[in-house]
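Quick one, tokens below:
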């Protein structure tokens, strides 16, 4: 239980901390965000291929590939709401879009809740920690984007931080639900949690490929992005050896 409390605390504080950083930078400086996105995308696709996919395909669960595709499609549907905030594509439009920040929050909360569901005792500690690290790194640019948009749409700092806190709780809540189901059910649910992990892998693959295959505006930072992507994959490889 203590281990999960630490993981939840890390997940929550990462979102709050990275989202709060928006107050320290110019809102029109996108260079750091683009490089953070490049690193997170490379890291996500790295841990997916090097650790998470081998885990689910080595299990006894059937049709795992179908659930990976399901996760990919779920992310496509969620982007109808979030407009790509998970990979930095959400842009602010007219000021009269009062519903936009709340629709964005709903979509990202669903996204985050699903990512938390495989953080459960059915998996080894190594898989859980790899997944948490992936989510933490993924949430840093998302939190920056989310706070930037909240402030653009006229929310006060206190209200924006409150909604950021709601988003921060979603991944731990997804994990708590799965662990509760796992504890109160006598039958082994390992296969079903493998399906949950497969769905998250599909989400990771969609988000990471969207980041990696986007073209930078005016073709700037291409070399920097390539170096950042290589670094992200190298870190993922190093983590897979642990």
């Amino acid at each position: 239980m203590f281990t999960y409390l630490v993981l939840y605390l890390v997940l929550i504080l990462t979102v709050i901390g990275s989202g709060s950083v928006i107050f320290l930078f110019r809102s029109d400086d996108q260079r750091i965000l683009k490089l953070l996105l490049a690193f997170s995308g490379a890291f996500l696709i790295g841990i997916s291929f090097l650790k998470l996919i081998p885990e689910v395909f080595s299990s006894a669960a059937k049709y795992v590939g179908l659930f990976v595709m399901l996760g990919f499609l779920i992310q496509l549907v969620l982007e109808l709401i979030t407009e790509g905030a998970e990979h930095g594509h959400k842009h602010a439009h007219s000021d009269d879009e009062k519903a936009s920040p709340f629709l964005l929050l709903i979509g990202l909360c669903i996204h985050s809740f699903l990512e938390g569901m495989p953080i459960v005792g059915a998996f080894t500690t190594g898989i859980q920690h790899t997944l948490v690290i992936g989510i933490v790194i993924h949430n840093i640019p998302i939190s920056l984007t989310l706070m930037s948009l909240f402030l653009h749409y006229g929310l006060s700092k206190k209200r924006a931080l409150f909604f950021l806190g709601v988003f921060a709780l979603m991944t731990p809540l997804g994990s708590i639900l799965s662990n509760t189901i796992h504890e109160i059910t006598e039958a082994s649910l390992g296969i079903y949690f493998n399906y949950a992990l497969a769905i998250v892998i599909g989400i990771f693959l969609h988000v990471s490929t969207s980041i990696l295959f986007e073209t930078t505006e005016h073709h700037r930072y291409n070399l920097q992005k390539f170096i950042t992507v290589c670094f992200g994959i190298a870190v993922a490889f190093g983590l897979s050896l642990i």
